Amino acid sequence: MLSPKTIEIIKSTVPVLEVHGTAITKRFYQMLFTKHPELLNIFNHANQKQGRQQHALANAVYAAAKHIDQLETILPVVKQIGHKHRSLGILPEHYPIVGENLLAAIKDVLGNAATDEILQAWAEAYGVIADAFISVEAEMYEKAERQQGGWAGFRAFRVAKKEQESDVITSFYLVPQDGNAIAAYEPGQYVSVKMEIPGEKNVHIRQYSLSDSPGKPYYRISVKRVDEEEGRPAGKVSNYLHEQIQADDVLWLSAPAGDFVLDSEETRPIVFLSGGVGQTPLISMLQTVVERQPNRPATFIHAAQNSQVHALKSQVEELADKHRQLSVYWCYSQPTERDVESKAYHKAGHIELPWLKEMLATPNASFYVCGPVDFMRAMNTLLKQCGVADSDIHVEFFGPAASL
Fold it and tell me: Where in the chain do CATH 1.10.490.10 domains reside?
């Protein structure tokens, strides 16, 4: 337990963290990787270069300081991050390293403003927060290993089939190399893929949503090839998977993880809103709903540039043909001439409020949203304008969490 004095000091730093938080976390990662380059085998380098990881950590530190006297309020965030840590292989021995470099970064950025009293208070607070993470993650590690078909660390999977779904998305069907059972998972969860790429100094780990419903003898991931764009490097792992990995090759996977999952107890109508490759966890949920809840109304709305990059379209349309409970709608921002001629979509442009209201039978539903951050921000705004409660909007970020 933290003393009232320590809590008071931590709370007094909240305004400073609001201003300097990202500078502190940027300096933290610089110091961390300089002193411990082996940790580059765990962290996503692309997220580092784009600043997403620094921003996410700054938000987490800010939230911890703001709620230091009520840490139970950030427990959902601890669990969300804990899932990612477990899937990456973050261990208790990593926490003292992080704490040491975080305090050093605070001192380095704030200079004389970071007094010994403030640093000592943060050292105590970090110890409490780290213990919370370690405790939560210990339970996750145990569950991942002890569950039927479960395992510790990374396990070898063979690519049973590689299937191109669109110009930019390819699915990989993965079966365990040892021939034993695989762990069950909840619709919406992901696996981490650990990749050693020839010519690369470090191991790369990426997390990919499971894009099929549970209960199959395989895992399926549907991976978007990330091309180089302004401000964003090409995806090393996604490109290697697309270009080099073939059937019968081996990938190393951690057990399924993630807290963005289908609420199977809910019976109200359900609406899925996806943009681009954000549809992958939602398709797993959709398949599960039509398989297990045949009387539950479901709506699937997907936004893409056009049919050339629209993956898994026929699979979803086949579900709609077989299950009357399901309605599907496509929104293409840049439809091709062929799309126009074949009437391959329901709306051109972007999802807008009048059209969305037409597609929704009722705002009293559960909404699951996944896609690029800008897409999710837009959908979050539209759903609130439709009268949807915050508690009914569930979102998933690919990569470090951001703010909507």
Answer: 4-146
CA dihedral defined by 120, 125, 128, 132, rounded to 10 degrees? Answer: -140
pLDDT recorded at residue 21:
87
Give the model confidence (pLDDT) of 38-82 as tens digits: 988 887 766 566 566 777 777 788 888 888 888 788 788 888 889
Residue list for the binding site: 85, 190, 206-209, 276-281, 397-400
**DSSP code for 350:** -
Binding residues for FAD: 190, 206-209, 397-400
Residue 137 falls in the annotated catalytic set:
yes
What pTM, to 2 d.p., does this model score? 0.92
β-strands 169-176, 219-224 pairing: antiparallel
We find that the CATH architecture of domain 4-146 is Orthogonal Bundle (1.10)
pLDDT in tens, 232-275: 778 899 999 999 999 999 999 999 999 999 999 999 999 999 99
**How do 393-396 and 366-370 pair as beta strands?**
parallel
CA distance linking residue 369 with residue 292, whole number of Å: 21
* CB-count burial class (<10 Å; 0-12, 13-18, 19+) for 343: exposed
318 is catalytic: no
Return residue ranges of the chain for CATH 2.40.30.10: 155-253
Distance CA 119, CA 166 (A): 52
User: Domain 155-253's class?
Assistant: mainly beta
CATH of domain 270-396: 3.40.50.80
**Catalytic choice (29, 62, 124, 137):** 137
